[in-house]
Structure formats: C-alpha cells, structure tokens
Write a structure and sequence with these properties.
The protein is of the alpha+beta class. It has helices spanning 8-15, 41-49, 83-86, 98-109, 146-155, 176-196, 198-214, 249-259, 263-281, 324-342, 347-367, 439-457; strands at 4-5, 24-32, 61-63, 74-77, 87-91, 120-126, 133-140, 240-248, 291-297, 310-316, 380-385, 393-394, 397-405, 414-421, 424-432. It has twelve helices and 15 strands. The chain has a six-stranded mixed beta sheet. It has a six-stranded mixed beta sheet with strand order 8-15-14-11-9-10, sandwiched between helices.
Length: 466
C-alpha cells in the first residue's frame, strides 16, 4: 500500500496538537458480564482479542517519517505492530466505583498517543463494584471523527447475545467509504459543479458567509469571535477531567414536542441551563449569551469512514435569559436560523463555507495565538453523535452504556459530546482539570435541568444519573 496523504481537515487535527491540547477522541463502553461468566472471563476475552492481527486500515497505519513528513503528512502501513502496547488490561482500585473509573479515564485521556506507532489504544478495565467491565478506546482525530468512531465500535458488536465469535474492531475490514471515499467525493463534486458551475458554488459560500457576518443579534445567526469570554475559555493544561450523565430519549422528545421544538433544541436547552447555573455559582456568567459550536456531519450513516467530514454551526445558548421557556425559544430561533443558512448551500459549497469559517480558528490553534485572544470563536462545543438504538453485545456481554470522551482546544476548556444508545442519550463532559476542576457539577446540573424544563412545561419525569 502506497503512502496516503492526509486531507486538509485531518492535517489540521495533527498540526493543532500541542503539549496542552492533545487531538485524540475516545469512547467509553460499559458491559455486563454474560450470565454464568466466571472471574476469568474478561482476561480470557482480552487474550482472545490479542489473537486477531492488526492488518486493517486505519488501525495498521502510522505517520510516515522522513523528509517532507511535516509539510505533507501521510499515512503508511506499519508492518510491526505490538498488540500488547495497543491493547491493555487494567483494574480499578477498591471500591471500584464511579469515582475510581472517572479518575482512571481522566488519566488515560490526559496521555498523548505515540506518533511512532498507529495512533490508537484500547484499555479493558475490570474491578468495577457491580461486576461489570469497561472498554476505553482512544484514537487520533486525524484518523477518525466521532461518527466514524462510534460506528467502528458498533461493528464488533452483535444484537444476538449468542454470537460469541465477533472479531476485534481492528480486524474488521474497512468501512465501504474507506476505499471509495475519494472517487465518490470527486464524483459528487463534479456532478454538482456540472449542474451549478464553479462560480455558483463560490457564490453560495460567499453569500452565506457575508449573511452570517452581517447578521443582527436578533436574527439568531452569530458570527465567529462574537462570544463573551468566561472560565470556559481559559488557557488549557494537559490534564483532563471527565464526567457523564444519561437522559432518556423518550423524555427529551416529549419535552421537545410539548415545547414545539426538536430533540437537538432540547439538548442545547439542558446544556444551557446547566452551564448557566454553574457559571452563576462561580460568579462568572457573562451578560451576553454563551455561544456553542455544533458540528454538522456531511455524511450519511452509510458514508461513515476514515477521516473527518463535518461542517459547523454557531448557536446562541441564551444563558443571559433567566426564564426557561424564553431561553428555549431563543435557542430554537438560533438553531432554525443556522438550518436556514446551511440549507441554502450544496455540499461542495458547504465544504468551502466551512473552510472559510474555520480558517482563523485553525490558524490560531496551530500557531498558539488562540490562547491569547480575548474574544473566543465560541464558548463550548455540543456535539450529538448518532449511535445504535438496539441493544448490542460483545461476545455475549451486554453493552450497558456508551459515553464519548472528546477533545478540547486551547482556549476551549469544555467539550460536551453525547451519543444515543438503547433509548438514552449518554453525555460525556471532557474538561481541562485546571480550568474546570468541578466539571461533575455540570453533569449533575444537566440532569436536573431536564426536570426543571419539564416542570416549567407542566410535565414530570425522572433523570437517570450516571
């Protein structure tokens, strides 16, 4: 296999990495042991996983070395992969509770990946107080985005608990898009350009860009670097904190329907309510509303593969509004304005628009200037990753929960990413340990925020805390 050049988006995640901001993402799975499994089951599973060769892309790829590798980075196959390095087996100290698991995940996520090896690691963790075990999978964002990572992990699971022959995820053949990604993208772009012409694509992107920059605050559109500064935008340290929360999708959808909005509107509303409460307690709530960056996938589920394929929306969280109903309507209007704007562009135009939007941010991250700016591009990121809705099993072990563990940029001390699975939205809060040492409070407040919004709308329900 010849060396494979990184795309512009993939190169950004590689070059933006610093000693304080590592550009890897991860997934935390928690499993219940199969019925009748003994204490040796997890160890036997790890031993069985090690028998599978690491010969499938992207898990067998490492960064090419030599002259020009910094200017034009590329992937090349690694023929001598040490599986004992990439697959680890660990155990929690007594009592093996949520705190001990959170501490371990925070520490694992604070460590950089070795650029001399394929950029991924997997740690199987036992010793949890309830008899379950966990699996933490970490991979560099230059290799895979969140949607692809979620789908990759799901492929080694089965809806059939009696299926005991599922291979390790690194032994699965690449997703279909991996081999056809470039030809398909070129074909789509060529078809779009043939219909609309290059000038039309440029015109769509430029008009959308200017519309966003000129938008008045009451329109719901927010241009970059119009966000207020607060503790969420501190210079980050290399150490991370991680917290989780789980909310039932049915409850979220019921509230959304009652309020006349979408599920994504309610997700932003509970995040805004939790952040507002936390910053009020810290005496750090800005007078202007916080702004959230919201990744928008440019792929369908069938197209998920290697690399990155996302656009971006900037939405107001309405944190300056005390009334929950008014705050929700404010968020809903901002999200609708973003949908209207992005909906005016074809896929090639949307890609160009995203590059224009992100260029100053990318330059700031790669040069270190982002840490010095007084006005952040946005305050926090809220990313919703679609996951499997059916119950899945890992060689007979039931998957109980799946939490994303994301990355944070310099000047962006908090990332909130959620994944849907088995009727729940699983929120992962990844934060800078120094800037947000009590991120667990935000996770708790998120659960209470749903109850608050339900009460305000006249409905009732319970929160499932994680």
């Amino acid at each position: 296999m010849a060396a494979k050049r990184l795309s512009l988006a993939d190169s950004f995640f590689l070059n933006a990495e610093s000693r304080d901001a590592y550009m890897h993402v991860a997934m935390l799975h928690r499993y219940a042991l199969p019925e009748g499994a003994g204490p040796e089951w997890v160890g036997q599973m790890v031993a069985r996983m090690k028998t599978y060769p690491v010969d499938q892309s992207p898990f067998n790829l490492r960064l090419r070395t030599g002259v020009g590798s910094k200017v034009a980075p590329a992937w090349e196959p690694d023929e001598r992969i040490d599986i004992d390095y990439h697959l680890r087996h660990a155990a929690l100290p007594h009592p093996g509770g949520e705190r001990e698991l959170g501490v371990l995940i925070s520490r694992l996520h604070s460590q950089p990946l070795d650029k001399n090896r394929p950029l991924w690691e997997c740690t199987v963790i036992e010793g949890l107080h309830d008899g379950s075990f966990a699996l933490y999978f970490k991979i560099h964002h230059a290799l895979m985005d969140g949607m692809s990572g979620s789908r990759t992990m799901s492929r080694c699971l089965s809806p059939d608990p009696s299926n005991l022959d599922m291979p390790a995820f690194w032994a699965m053949p690449p997703l279909k898009r991996a081999s056809a990604a470039v030809p398909k993208a070129i074909a789509e772009s060529a078809q779009a350009l043939a219909r609309t012409s290059v000038l039309s694509v440029l015109g769509q992107s430029f008009r959308a860009w200017m519309r966003m920059l000129r938008a008045a605050p009451e329109s719901g559109l927010i241009g970059p670097y119009r966000s207020p500064s607060c503790s969420l935008n501190a210079v980050v340290s290399p150490q991370r904190r991680f917290a989780t929360q789980s909310l039932p999708i049915d409850r979220m959808k019921a509230v959304a329907e009652r309020a006349g909005g979408t599920l994504n509107d309610i997700v932003l509303a509970v995040c805004a309510t939790a952040l507002r409460r936390y910053l009020l307690e810290q005496g750090d709530l800005p007078a202007k509303p916080l702004v959230s960056s919201i990744p928008v996938s440019l792929r369908t589920r069938e197209e998920a593969g290697e690399g990155n394929g996302i656009s971006l929306a900037l939405a107001s969280l309405g944190t300056h509004i005390a009334d929950p109903k008014a705050r929700f309507q404010h968020i809903k209007a901002s999200m609708q304005a973003n949908k209207d704007l992005l909906g005016t562009m074809t896929k090639p135009a949307l890609t160009l628009y995203t590059n224009l939007l992100m260029a100053p941010f990318m330059i700031g991250q790669m040069t270190g200037l982002a840490a010095r700016t007084k006005r952040p591009m946005y305050n926090t990121m809220v990313s919703n990753v679609p996951g499997p809705m059916e119950v899945l099993y890992l060689n007979g072990a039931r998957l109980l929960s799946a939490y994303p563990v994301s990355l944070i940029f310099n000047g962006q001390a908090l990332n909130i990413t959620l994944l849907s699975y088995d009727g729940h939205l699983h929120f992962g809060f990844t934060a800078c340990r120094v800037a947000l040492p009590h991120v667990q409070k935000i996770a708790v407040y998120l659960g209470e925020a749903l109850a608050e919004i339900e009460q305000d709308l006249g409905s009732e329900g319970r929160v499932t805390a994680a």
